[in-house]
Write a structure and sequence with these properties.
single chain; 4-stranded antiparallel beta sheet; 1 helix; flat; Methanol Dehydrogenase, Chain A; 38 strands; 2% helix; mainly beta
Length: 394
């Protein structure tokens, strides 16, 4: 049960809609200031409020002294001071001074950055540069590889900056569990971390769902499901597979959405749905009769309640929208809170933000109020690694 709902927060919750910034505009540091940098810094104005970090008790543990911040990742967060980006550790100490125009989160001990006078490249926590005149960084490291671009083509480097997968692809996506989708001459295939094709480039579209040990492919009007070795599991004629949970597929056919059993290789009976979205935990949101309904993997309603929206499950809970307000439910369709929140965000590492008429608070995993933000808070974001960004009045 929700506790402390009558407590009134002492700040307004207006402005909580713009929360999802994970990257931030950053600036470079060069001995010879470029015209671009000089013009940028001349026009830059620090915001009226500053960012810091709170811990899971709601205490401000890193003072609000930054123009902008990212979430913590691998014990480091990108921070902006006077228009330039650097990095701090969990104590708030600057470990890489503000000097970049762009700075992204650390992944596998590497972070992507950009100065004014160079294309994007990578740095280590000690500030060592990983760059090359031969390539430009495109995405973060994953599975020991990072997507880079050489001229118009894409390839992959290792953590030392060496090209491991030759730039030969017109499009490519980052590795996920050792596999990456690449495109060659308008056809897509899948490679491993050594660059070897697991699935030859013969598909119009591929989705790497390696979490479920499956690959979804499209060839012309027909959809296919493959295993991680590229072997065909099944084919669905004149249809398109959109999602899988390892047991069921969401299939689009003749402008309707259907659940399709992988084991039985057949559509589940019924009239189909207007929309069908996988929510996690073997649950689906099916839209029909003007609202979303929670279904299990047998296509049966988990509850009879209809919703304007059901978010994906996170930490075992899903935010729902009903009767113009928000609440939370579990995979069994049990409403853990009534629809009482003006806004409700997804859970992240055991906490969720929820907005009341008079303010905003963090909820714990029991849907109880864990704490209100400290006085003077203007904005805040989700927890990661035990810390959450918070914007404070100067």
């Amino acid at each position: 049960m929700l506790q402390g709902i009558s407590k009134v927060s002492r700040y307004s919750w207006f402005g909580w809609f713009g929360l999802l910034l994970t990257l931030v505009a950053c600036k470079p540091d060069s001995n010879s200031i470029t015209d671009e940098k000089q013009a940028y810094l001349a026009d830059y104005e620090s915001p009226g409020y500053r960012w810091g970090f709170i811990d899971t008790t709601g205490e401000l543990v890193i003072p609000a002294m930054f123009d902008e911040v990212s979430r913590f990742s691998e014990g480091k967060a990108a921070v902006n001071q006077d228009g330039l980006w650097g990095y701090i550790d969990t104590s708030g100490k600057l470990i890489i001074k503000p000097q970049f125009r762009l700075a992204y989160n650390f992944h596998e001990n590497r972070a992507r950055v950009k100065t004014f006078d160079l294309p994007e490249y990578y740095i280590t926590p000690g500030g060592t540069t990983i760059s090359s005149k031969d390539w430009t960084a495109v995405d973060d490291f994953s599975n020991g590889r990072a997507l880079v671009k050489v001229g118009p083509l894409f390839g992959f480097i290792d953590t030392s900056g060496n090209i491991i997968v030759k730039p030969a692809y017109t499009r490519a996506w980052s590795f996920d569990q050792g596999l990456a989708v690449v495109e060659l001459e308008d056809k897509q295939g899948i490679i491993d971390v050594a660059g070897k094709f697991i699935v030859e480039p013969q598909f119009d579209h591929l989705i790497n769902t390696s979490t479920f040990k499956q690959i979804v492919g499209q060839q012309g009007n027909d959809a296919m499901l493959l295993d991680l070795n590229g072997n065909e599991i099944l084919q669905v004629k004149v249809a398109r597979i959109l999602e899988t949970d390892g047991l069921m597929l969401s299939v689009q056919k003749e402008n309707r959405m259907w659940l399709y059993s992988i084991a039985n290789k057949m559509y589940l009976p019924g009239p189909g749905f207007d929309q069908l979205i996988y929510l996690g935990l073997n649950r689906w949101a099916a839209f029909y009769d003007g609202s979303f309904h929670l279904l299990d993997d047998d296509g049966k309603e988990v509850s009879s309640t209809g919703y304007a929206q059901i978010n994906k499950f996170a930490d075992g809970f899903a935010a729902y929208h009903r009767d113009e307000f928000w609440g939370y439910l579990d995979k069994n369709g049990t409403e853990l809170t009534k629809p009482i929140f003006g806004l409700a965000w997804d859970y992240k590492v055991g906490f969720a933000r929820a907005a009341f008429k008079n303010g905003l608070a963090f909820l714990n995993s029991k849907q109880e109020i864990a704490f209100y933000p400290p006085d003077g808070a203007e904005d805040l974001r989700d927890f990661n690694e035990g810390l959450a960004p918070i914007q404070m009045i100067k």
